[in-house]
Amino acid sequence: MSFFDYFCHMKQQEEITIQSLANNEDIQIGYSDNEIVIVDSIQKFTELSSAHVTMNAIVICTNGKVQAQMNGIQMELHKNQVAIIPQNVTVTDVMISPDFDLKGLFLTNRLLRSFLREKISIWNDMMYIYRHHVVTMDENEILFYTHFYDMLTLAIERGKENPYRSDIIQALICSAILGLCGAMKWMLSADNRETHPSDSHFQRFLDLLHSTEVKHRTVEAYANDLCISPKYLTTICKKNSGKTANEWITEHVLEDIRYYLKQTDLSIKQISNKLGFPNPSFFGKYVKDHFGTTPAAFRNS
């Protein structure tokens, strides 16, 4: 059974997750761990009825073409084009040419954010403000990614005994995604379209989240900074991204917590103060509620 066959035989509304892909023995997978799945190719071709993809996906068309609806928006992908799909997207009405083939990368939002850090704003602008989901690569970019994929394949196949194999693979994938973000940034700078007022408010909200050190604030506080109502802020977030304002805030706060606990030597009290929590006890409860463990245990895990 092929990757798309797997989608077609799912129940309606069933979600596609990292785990469901990795655990399906009928799908040809180049590599998988708890946060990444790499699909090497599609050998058999059929129509896809519907799928809800919960993670982020980057799909390179290596031959032929595919058409699909992504959250109701028509998308067409040709050879040497990359489809960039954010999390929580419903893909329907897929039509594939007989010679279609691809390479696909699926990764969790947590890992994507850890790869991009402050550059996540480029990804969010592409996905949610301008809704550019297709990037065309020139010959030099194709050569770059061909060499990159060869290195990734070597790391996967020959590094099985290396204790740092997962770190090496993630570093290579991070480099490729950063290269893709460079292409995204160029596309955004070349796009002179005006945004709808609600899109503009949403973009300002994301910019505020990215630039504010203390992100652990209420929806009302962000709405006041933007001179709009909390209800309107939540509405435009849901309209543009499928996520509420509070979900966006929580995502950013949790990523900052992960970063400072895992990547710095700051004490838990210093991190609590830096991220705007009233005291270490409240910070510890917040970490326990979201990660299921204490800050100290999470740092040492």
TrEMBL record:
Pfam families cross-referenced by the UniProt entry: HTH_18 (PF12833)
PROSITE patterns assigned: HTH_ARAC_FAMILY_2 (PS01124)
Domain HTH araC/xylS-type: 203-301
InterPro entries, per the entry: Homeodomain-like_sf, HTH_AraC
The keyword Transcription is assigned to this record: yes
SUPFAM superfamilies registered for this protein in UniProt: Homeodomain-like
Keyword Cytoplasm: no
Gene Ontology terms for molecular function: DNA-binding transcription factor activity; sequence-specific DNA binding
Record's keyword terms, sorted: DNA-binding, Transcription, Transcription regulation
Identification of the protein by name: Helix-turn-helix domain-containing protein
Organism for this UniProt entry: Xylanibacter ruminicola (Prevotella ruminicola)
Organism lineage: Bacteria, Pseudomonadati, Bacteroidota, Bacteroidia, Bacteroidales
